[in-house]
Amino acid sequence: DSPLLVSLSSIASQQSKPTQSTKSTAKQLLDYVASQEDAILTYNASDMILAAHSDASYLSEPNARSRAGGHLFLSSNVENPPNNGAILNIAQIIKNVMSSATEAELAALYIVAKECIYIRLILEEMGHPQPPTPIQTDNKTAEGVINNKIQPKRTKAMDMRFHWLRDRETLRQLRFYWRAGTLNLADYFTKHHSAAHHKSVRGEFLTLQRVLDE
Prior knowledge:
Largest sheet: 5 strands, mixed
Strand content: 15-25%
């Protein structure tokens, strides 16, 4: 159940030094699991073209840590690939302290892109040729840096990440593009949300049992 990923990763990060708060959070998660109706991951027919959404939340975790989110799915070779059932969702706390929101977004893109590279190889070995894998971001600065539209003056801290991403785009393995944050499904995996938001967004990733029964 992908909506559990953010909470699970947050609890996992505290397991070496648990507190009463950790216990309370774990109990709340178990209550959520027990009270939610069954949900099913549904895949629609596609052209087997890998696509991804990437996002980050800056300084959203304890100790000045940021969080990366990713949504990888199989779709069609179009400019803005339509959503499908996830083959991988990422909800990960970035290990290093990020110096800016843009650096956090670049770190998230790097994490998502690394996963895309080996999945591309698997799909190609299965007989599904891949165009440059489209990766959607909602940060214009990060997209501009990777696509050489922007040349930041101070990039030493993020040199390795963005040069690696630039190289992969030059090799036509990846394609980075911008769309508004409201259209970025990876946003769901970058932060803790209210119950109302969970209910409204859960259907984007899972098919609820009651829908199948109708």
